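Everyone, carefully examine this protein record:
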Amino acid sequence: MDKKNYIIEVAKSLIGKFGFKKTTMEDIAKAARMGKATLYYYFSSKDDIFREIIEKEGNRFRKKLLEALEGAKTAKEKLLRYSFTRFHFLKEVRLYYKTIKDELYSHLDFIERERKKFDKFDLEILEKILEEGVEKGEFNIKNPKYYAFLLLQAIKGLEIPILTGDALSFENKEINLDEAVSALLNILMHGILRSPQA
């Protein structure tokens, strides 16, 4: 691993443990066992390091989602794989993001830019999946883009609860993530009304 990526990994670990505000450039230099001058050679500030972390994690997330769709034979299977991968990734990084509800990052413009970029990416994936489902006769919807937007809002509504762990606890018991995601998607795709044929 090159020095720049090593610094990013060290900083990511420290921010995950202590939060962005409490982590200093001095802390990062000490944990990376290097002088502050060396750290400043690669990064001009803590914000600069955090920007790299956000971009790197975003790219890793997008790659995982695209890989999850490969080999899926139906639009329904793609939707399931997309959702499972998304929520498992969030569960995986939730320790790193545990301070997200305690700290305000509004002063960091790059976070909002990355979020918008990711929303666009998500919307395009979901729209393609829904369009494919309509073409194959799997889904009966008139406006895939509109439904993709609504589906994304429903999915995003669970992001913070997943990141903080709140969504994984029901009646003081940890719930199975795959079962929860399957139940949610079942409601979204089939509703809760009893079928007239039943």
User: Anything to note?
Assistant: Residues 75 and 136 are 8 Å apart (CA to CA). The radius of gyration is 20 Å.
